[in-house]
Each structure stands twice: as C-alpha cells, then as structure tokens.
Amino acid sequence: MTASPALGTHPPATSDLLRSVFRRHAAGVAVITAAHGSRPVGFTATSLTSVSAEPPMISFGIGTGASSWPAVSEAAHVGVHILGEHQQELAATFARSGADRFGAPTSWREGPEGVPVLDGALAWLVCRVVTRVPAGDHRLVIAEVVTGDPAGEGRPLLYHQGRFNALRD
C-alpha cells in the first residue's frame, strides 16, 4: 500500500474539490420531468437514489437556480426516466441551459398524473412528491413511486469524467 500525505496537506473543502472528486464517480443518468401548468419541464440528473422499498421511494437533487426548479418546487408528481446508452443526445438536451427540451426530436407523451413521460427510456416512474429538503444551494426531493414501466430495451447510460459514457463489460 502506498503511504498518503498527512491530511493537513490536502486542500480545504470547496465546490471545486467536490466537483473534481465526483467526476471520478460513475453515475447512472436520469431525466426528471414535471408539468408546470400546460408546459412540460425537465432536467438531466445523476443524483437519483433509491430510498425505500416499503413504501417504494426515490430521491434526487435539484439546484434552486435551475430553470426547472420553480416547476419542481410546486409539482405534486414528477417523472423519473432511466436513460439508455442510445440516449446520449437526449441527456445532453435536458442538461443544456436554454434548450427546447420537449421540441423535436424529443418524443414524449402525457402520462399518469399529467406527468410528461419520455419515449424510449430503459425504465420510467411517476412519483408523488413527499417532501423537498433544503441542502445548501439544492433541494433534495423525496418522492413515492405511484406507477412505472421497467421494460425498456438496452443498456444504461453513465456519466463519468464530465461525459456521457456507455457501460463496458
């Protein structure tokens, strides 16, 4: 084992340090959607987590400065879409500020509880928002699963080192 330098020689905690460390963490890619009046909204998330099996619950983080935050802050239900490696462009579209996320070529429909459901995802859920917990400049949204479909085809899309990647065997 290689000896590491004393803890005192490492940089202090900053947002840059956190981002640098998490670039090394491979994460699955999801798109979260919600209805905001008659307008659908959505964003790419890598912070999706399974929280509880009984009842089935998930969580995700969203920045309070994100364009989707006003809708998510009021939404009773959200859609959660697990993206496949064939959906890199879709992930990039929903991550891009100012993009027309629901315009062509995005294919979607109104799903249960009026939530936008994206076509072609590996799996999707519609969830009832239970709470929004303040967490620095973000909110941690905790939601209970209402319905979903796990039957999509393909392999998962990953995010690593600032890029979307395919899973390797």
From TrEMBL:
Keyword Hydrolase recorded: no
InterPro entries per record: Flavin_Rdtase-like_dom (IPR002563), NADH-dep_flavin_reductase (IPR050268), Split_barrel_FMN-bd (IPR012349)
Short name of any one Pfam family annotated for the protein: Flavin_Reduct
Flavin reductase like domain segment(s): 22-166
Signal peptide: none
Keywords: Oxidoreductase
KW Oxidoreductase (keyword) present: yes
Superkingdom of origin organism: Bacteria
Name of the protein this chain belongs to: Flavin reductase family protein
